[in-house]
Amino acid sequence: MKIIILGAPGAGKGTVAKLLCDFDGSIQISTGDILRAAVRAETELGKKAKGYMDRGDLVPDSLIMDIMEARLQEPDCDKGFILDGFPRTINQAEGLKELIKKLNINLDFVVNLEVPRDVILDRLTTRRTCSNPECQEIYNIKSKPPTADGKCEKCGSPVIQRDDETEEAITYRLETYNEKTAPLIGFYESEGSLKNFASVDSKETVEAIKKEL
Ligand code: AMP
């Protein structure tokens, strides 16, 4: 499959993307994961991106488009891909439109995950992530806690709260989403490629998406 997943922070994009990859072997391309890896490795990209990310701001479009232009030409993309967290602005969506034309890629459709705001806030403040970059399993202190001593069940690394998941950063990320990313819903609707899915239970959402493929 070749799809884009849109949704507010905490809408479950990453979880849904992982389940869809398990289903047909497509790969998940998360610009957030790529950027966090660059920050950890202290690359030039990471140094440029860190300040924006810690504040909950978007990283400039030009950096993101450079990352995606290279990433979409990697051979593993032939298996199919799920874009998670990209595009995030109308500018990026316009850039992606040009890019897929140039690379001769056909997208199946754009998934929009719809989740009530109170569910989103609750999910984000209770979310924890495995600190092992190779694992990054997602936990939730209410519904899917890590081990009693705060370790990842899969790899045993400490499970942490991300820097951009403090209450202040979350509020800002949601404002940024409303201002800059929510307009993409109208953009893809007018292109005729948008499909809306309620996303309270990730497994049910995935089943609904599979039916549309
Ligand atoms: P995410 O894990 O998708 O929530 O991304 C974490 C952070 O990385 C965001 O808050 C942004 O600072 C940055 N980021 C990820 N994807 C993008 C993008 N497509 N455009 C701009 N910034 C991004």
Question: Can you characterise this structure?
Answer:
This protein is an alpha/beta fold and 213 residues long. The protein has helices spanning 13-24, 31-40, 44-55, 61-71, 90-102, 117-126, 167-181, 183-191, 202-212, and strands at residues 2-6, 27-30, 81-84, 109-114, 127-130, 138-140, 159-160, 194-198. Strands 2-3-1-4-8 form a 5-stranded parallel sheet. A 3-stranded antiparallel sheet has the order 6-5-7. A hairpin with a 7-residue loop joins strand 5 (127-130) and strand 6. Helix 1 (13-24) packs across helix 9 and helix 4 packs parallel to helix 5 (90-102). The longest helix is centred in the C-terminal third of the chain and has 15 residues, at 167-181. The structure holds adenosine monophosphate. Residues 9, 31-32, 35, 52-53, 56-59, 64, 85-86, 88, 92, 164, 173 line the site of adenosine monophosphate (AMP).
